[in-house]
Backbone:
C-alpha cells in the first residue's frame, strides 16, 4: 500500500500538535512519563511515541486527551488561547465555600486544643463534630 502524501502545511500542523501533546505530557508526568500517559489513555507505549513524533492522532484519542488533562481544545489543536479550560464559576464558588468551612473547622479544632477547660473542651468538640458532619453531608 502506497503512502498518502500530505501537504507541507498539514505536516507542520501535525508536528506542532505533536509538540503540544509532548509538552502537555511532560507537564503532567515529567520527561519520562510517556508510559504513564499511554497507560492512562489505554494505548500501547509505541503508539504514544508515534503520536509525539507526528503521526496522525485519531479524534477519539484527542477527545480523551482533552478529557484527561482538561486542556483547552483551541490550545491543543492550534496553540492559541489559555492552555487549560477554566473552572466553571459554580465549581469555584463551591470550592471557596468548602475552603471557608474547612478553615472554620480548623479554627474550632485549634480552640479545642488550646483550651484547658473541660467544659469549653466539650463545647468545642460538639462544634467540631457538627461542622464536620455539615461539610461531609454537603459533599455527597
Residues:
Amino acid at each position: 500500500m502506497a503512502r498518502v502524501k500530505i501537504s507541507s502545511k498539514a505536516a507542520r500542523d501535525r508536528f506542532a500538535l505533536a509538540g503540544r501533546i509532548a509538552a502537555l505530557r511532560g507537564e503532567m508526568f515529567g520527561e519520562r512519563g510517556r508510559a504513564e500517559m499511554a497507560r492512562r489513555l489505554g494505548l500501547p507505549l509505541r503508539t504514544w511515541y508515534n503520536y509525539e513524533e507526528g503521526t496522525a492522532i485519531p479524534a477519539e484519542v484527542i477527545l480523551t486527551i482533552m478529557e484527561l488533562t482538561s486542556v483547552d481544545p483551541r490550545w491543543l489543536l492550534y496553540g492559541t488561547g489559555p492552555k487549560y479550560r477554566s473552572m466553571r464559576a459554580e465549581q469555584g464558588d463551591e470550592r471557596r465555600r468548602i475552603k471557608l468551612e474547612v478553615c472554620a473547622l480548623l479554627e474550632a479544632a485549634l480552640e479545642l486544643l488550646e483550651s484547658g477547660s473541660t467544659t469549653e473542651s466539650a463545647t468545642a468538640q460538639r462544634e467540631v463534630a457538627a461542622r464536620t458532619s455539615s461539610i461531609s453531608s454537603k459533599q455527597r
